[in-house]
């Protein structure tokens, strides 16, 4: 492939800025192409998009063609490249730790050993990186499939497989509450959240009148500090939070574990074992003071929903709405791994 001098200089400058070991080595492959670079905290890959194909450059390539992996097996070599389009540079970060990548790669490796899986296109580290990029950044499967040099259907199978394995590791309700009690927590916070979905107006059961959008209802139990303790399965967005809590049977379980339950006004009339703030206008000063003190206790617990939605895939689902719960449980496991260090 021939490259114009200007394009070669531009590519060399970019590779030096990206700390590539030998910029001149891959310049001829990058010049006169469209280039998309994805720089994350766990690896670096450069996707070369052309009019007739694509190329994938990963890790640090030495003069002898050897690679130096950044994290375990997450790095491969060059796939292919084609000339054609103008150059386009894009750099993005994946704000996750190496420990999380190693954790997911270990799950994949053990699963393949148990199932006797044959050779696959991506090794465990690469498959883990693909799944984390989808969950954390919300990239489409088509984009990720091209970036990792696999088909869209293969990427979908990889993601589905690992999400199921991660969701299976999510704690059950009873053990999660007992662990919270053993950790010294005096209360837990129950709160509902709506996960937006890409459904049309005719899907009335998934339409939330409160939020005026389509979505799926999730019930989340968190610690006083806002750490996620348990995530429910999905229900249509039209289901009220109190109804959803009753369906999942989470209103009396904390009391049975010796914990108080703090909720918002949506759970009023849930029972004496569930605490809610005073509602209505014209409250006496004593009730106002009590509501402010209550809000100071409960507000940190609402960080749990924000932690879930920091994984961009839950900001608006583009897949089957009934996978919401499985995705949320998988993210719960990953988020716990991140916060645990």
Structure description:
Helix content is 39%, strand content 16%. It has 341 residues and is an alpha+beta fold. α3 crosses α4 and α4 packs across α6. The radius of gyration is 24 Å and the shape is globular. The chain starts with a helix and ends with a helix.
Keywords:
alpha+beta; 12 strands
Q: Nearest-angstrom radius of gyration?
A: 24 Å
The helix/strand order is HHEEEEEHHHHHEEEEEHHEEHHH
- Low-confidence stretches at least 5 residues in length (pLDDT < 50)? 1-12, 18-87
Which percent band covers the strand fraction? 15-25%
Distance between the termini: 45 Å
Task: Look at the structure and give the mean pLDDT.
Answer: 75
Instruction: Tell how many strands the DSSP assignment holds.
Output: 12
| Overall body shape | globular
Task: Provide a count of the helices.
Answer: 12
Please identify the structural class as seen in this structure: alpha+beta
Helix content: 25-40%
Briefly summarize what is shown.
With 341 residues, the protein is α+β, with helices and mostly antiparallel strands. It has 12 helices and 12 strands.
Q: What is the secondary structure topology, with strand pairs?
A:
Blueprint: H1 5-17, H2 27-30, E1 34-39, E2 44-49, E3 54-58, E4 60-61, E5 67-68, H3 98-115, H4 124-137, H5 141-148, H6 152-167, H7 173-182, E6 187-196, E7 207-208, E8 213-222, E9 228-231, E10 235-236, H8 241-248, H9 253-256, E11 260-262, E12 274-275, H10 285-298, H11 303-309, H12 324-340
Parallel strand pairs: 6-11, 11-12
Antiparallel strand pairs: 1-2, 2-3, 4-5, 6-8, 7-8, 8-9, 8-10
Helix pairs in contact: 3-4, 4-5, 4-6, 5-6, 6-12
């Amino acid at each position: 492939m021939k490259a114009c001098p200007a394009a070669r200089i531009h590519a060399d400058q970019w590779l030096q800025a990206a700390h590539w070991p030998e910029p001149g080595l891959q310049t001829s492959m990058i010049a006169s192409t469209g280039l998309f670079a994805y720089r994350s905290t766990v690896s670096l890959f450069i996707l070369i998009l052309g009019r007739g194909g694509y190329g994938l450059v990963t890790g640090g390539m030495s003069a002898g063609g050897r690679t130096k992996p950044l994290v375990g097996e997450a790095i491969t070599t060059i796939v292919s490249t084609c000339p054609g389009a103008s150059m386009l540079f894009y750099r993005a970060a994946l704000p996750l730790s190496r420990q999380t990548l190693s954790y997911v790669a270990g799950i994949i490796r053990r699963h393949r050993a148990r199932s006797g899986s044959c050779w696959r296109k991506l090794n465990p580290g690469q498959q883990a990186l693909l799944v984390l990029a989808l969950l954390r950044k919300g990239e489409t499967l088509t984009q990720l499939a091209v970036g990792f040099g696999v088909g869209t259907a293969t990427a979908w199978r990889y993601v589905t497989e690992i999400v199921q394995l991660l969701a299976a590791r999510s704690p059950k309700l009873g053990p999660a509450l007992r662990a919270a009690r053993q950790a010294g927590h005096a209360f837990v916070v129950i709160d509902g959240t709506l996960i937006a979905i890409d459904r049309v107006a005719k899907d009335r059961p998934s339409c939330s009148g409160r939020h005026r959008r389509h979505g799926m209802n999730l019930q989340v139990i968190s610690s006083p500090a806002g750490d996620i303790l348990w995530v429910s399965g999905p229900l249509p967005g039209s289901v009220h939070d109190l109804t959803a809590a009753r369906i999942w049977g989470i209103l009396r379980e904390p009391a049975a574990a010796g914990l108080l339950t703090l909720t918002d006004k949506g759970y009023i009339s849930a029972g004496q074992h569930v605490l809610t703030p005073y509602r209505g206008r014209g409250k006496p000063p004593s009730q106002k003071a009590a509501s402010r003190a209550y809000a100071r206790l409960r507000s940190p617990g609402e960080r749990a929903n924000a932690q879930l939605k920091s994984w961009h895939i839950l900001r608006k689902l583009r897949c089957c709405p009934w996978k919401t719960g499985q995705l949320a449980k998988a993210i719960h496991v990953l988020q716990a791994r991140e916060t645990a260090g």
